């Protein structure tokens, strides 16, 4: 047993879980009409209904005790203060400084980082204004109307998904295209439709060493030069966001055209830095700023609200409850809003890269589950496919349903149907349908007794499936900022309880390293192959097909 699983609180939670498994949420709702109002909290434009969860007051009390004993608040304060909490990379974790509008300084190694942060925000603001006004032009004097944003991981998901989510707020007149994968099909397709004279390439790479991003930028550069641009014109059409200024200038970027970022911003938390420039180009600076302000508001809520009202804390603890005491291995995100369709993929990187870890503290192997599989897609589409498994499969899959109450420029009939499906699903998951109800429904359907019993058995829905419902007045930039920050802090709280380092990603690094070793053998076709026999055979087959 580890220190965590050995605690009386952990043991209490384990025994409460055994109790709860014998009960049904539909009975709780029937016996307590105030359940919905009791288990709901609102903050930063997010209304969280968590009443359809397998919880009682005792469960919540024990979960809050677990958070207390795991020193979540102390760890949270250490993060906001700039302590070196990413202990394997010896870095502070300060994405919160990028949206700090308190006017207070934030120190890293004794130095206030806020002046640099604010200067970078000004640089973004001026740059966006110069593009949107058409003042900044390409080498032939045309306005730069097509933006190609090249980056991967956190340098792609945040910018792309947040831009997509805010489509009703787009600035008319520029179009941002995103390219991530090294698969040449993607960049070819994007560049094929563009006029190089009005194209601006934004290369986003914190490290400036990521293979995919470097290669895609080189391909874009070749395309630009082949289309008629010269080496000298590059400065007008290529800019970079990176913390590795030297590598960026070595690559040929003009120093003026490099937007800075810092090693105290993790890739998956970087949309708040200049990595968010494509968002600002898509929405305009004011809307982009609202996004940051929404995140700041959530930071303040996370720091100040008591656990019972604290959205990141509540959602995190509910997750721990299911992962560690009910064996849930995944968590599904279901945005009922087409523009938010990418959100599950965003949280997938945020959560799985952060808490996909098995060492607690310095060197202790965990003996409990940590980060879940995050997945999901937009409603109602999933209802016609994978929801079946959530309703009647053998796995317990907690769900977060999300719905904006108002949507711009849309027929109300569609929106009412969308909402009814969202609410109907949470209801069905919670209450299920008993055998008796199914049996009664089959009355007068011309079935003999055996057939009626058989069909009722198959139609029986266990229910008791947990879900949160998150409502938003509307999905505007500020609310989206708060929502993203809520999930960031949720992941933080869970990592703090499990004692893992939520801010490194050694598994991903290994993939990068091995990919490069293999590439070397693919490119140098005469080189001897010294990997395992399967990898060797795959490389040999590829060489043969491409010879
Ligand atoms: O921005 P870059 O340095 O190019 O890194 C891009 C991505 O690389 C890796 O995959 C990391 O795990 C991600 O967190 C990061 O966002």
Automatic annotation (TrEMBL):
Catalytic activity entry: alpha-D-glucose 6-phosphate = beta-D-fructose 6-phosphate
InterPro entries the record matches: G6P_Isomerase, G6P_Isomerase_C, Phosphoglucose_isomerase_CS, SIS_dom_sf, SIS_PGI_1, SIS_PGI_2
Pathway this chain belongs to: Carbohydrate degradation; glycolysis; D-glyceraldehyde 3-phosphate and glycerone phosphate from D-glucose: step 2/4; Carbohydrate biosynthesis; gluconeogenesis
Enzyme Commission code(s) on record: 5.3.1.9
Principal location listed in the UniProt entry: cytoplasm
Keywords: Cytoplasm, Gluconeogenesis, Glycolysis, Isomerase
Protein name: Glucose-6-phosphate isomerase
UniProt organism field: Paraglaciecola mesophila
Classification lineage: Bacteria, Pseudomonadati, Pseudomonadota, Gammaproteobacteria, Alteromonadales
